[in-house]
Design goal:
Blueprint: E1 2-7, H1 10-17, H2 20-28, E2 32-37, E3 50-52, E4 60-62, H3 64-78, E5 84-94, H4 97-103, E6 108-113, H5 121-127, E7 130-133, H6 143-154, H7 166-169, E8 187-188, E9 191-192, H8 195-198, H9 202-220, H10 222-231
Parallel strand pairs: 1-2, 1-6, 5-6, 5-7
Antiparallel strand pairs: 3-4, 8-9
The chain binds adenine (ADE).
Adenine (ADE) binds near residues 89, 135, 138, 139 and 142.
Length: about 240
């Protein structure tokens, strides 16, 4: 899968994404990440990419021309069928695990990162296919949200995670938060690992994990718990 990021700060996104698991996945060739500098496409002789907003108001706006020319060059180079362009914005639909799974099916994705007070609406109208937010709060630019989304999408691409199972059992994959997990030693700060996990009895371990996942979800995310119970009406018997 190919990720293309349109940004004024390529070194920021590449620095963050070319580390750890996502960085190794790129080295292995499972995914490819490129950042294109929008400033390279401005026709302004001072390399300016922003200007005041018509009608007044605080701050500067990214202009249509460099954003459009940057996208045109990228889209022509990709030469795929209608590559989706995601504008990361607090005005978008809120990102979720479901959205990550949907987007991980694409061959190419273009992320457009805004800065300053945003981007001239006319170019957004022409090139953007999806408006996506990472939550109801405002950041100073689109780079961090793009990195968050790319991380969540990339780890669902086959081969990125070594253990294929971990993406299926983790929190949110099935509508529940993940059960608690323990590693060595068996006793730490006088706290014992639950006996069932040392029993080697797989059916009991599975049952315990489901109960824990349900309990944890009910406590921490009652909204998710309600939705899960609605879809799985037979409540497992409580001990
Ligand atoms: N840009 C600024 N804030 C954002 C947010 N919450 N989500 C996506 N893009 C943003």
């Amino acid at each position: 899968m190919y990720f293309h990021i349109m940004t004024l700060f390529p070194e920021m996104v590449l620095g963050g994404l070319r580390t750890s698991i996502i960085g190794r996945a790129e080295e292995k060739g499972c995914i490819s990440i490129e950042a294109v500098n929008i400033r390279d496409y401005t026709t302004d002789k001072h390399k300016k990419v922003d200007d005041y907003t018509y009608g007044g108001g605080a701050g500067m706006l990214m202009q249509a021309q460099p954003v459009y020319d940057c996208w045109r060059a990228l889209d022509e180079r990709i030469a795929g069928q209608k590559t989706r362009v995601i504008y990361v914005t607090p005005q978008g639909e809120v990102f979720s695990q479901k959205k990550a799974a949907e987007l991980s099916m694409e061959e190419d994705l273009i992320f457009l990162c805004g800065h300053y007070e945003g981007i001239d609406e006319r170019v957004l109208d022409e090139i953007v296919t999806d408006y996506i937010s990472i939550g109801d709060y405002v950041l100073t630019g689109g780079e961090l949200p793009a990195m968050v989304m790319i991380d969540a999408i990339a780890r669902l691409v086959p081969g990125v995670l070594n253990n294929g199972e971990s993406a299926q059992t983790e929190s949110h994959a099935d509508g529940l938060l993940e059960y608690p997990q323990y590693s060595r030693p068996e006793v730490w700060h006088e706290k014992r690992v639950p006996d069932v996990l040392l029993s080697g009895h797989h059916a009991n371990i599975e049952k315990w994990r489901l109960e824990q996942a349900l309990e944890r979800t009910r406590e921490r995310r009652p909204d998710m718990y309600e939705a899960y119970i609605r879809e799985h009406p037979v409540k497992p018997s409580k001990k």
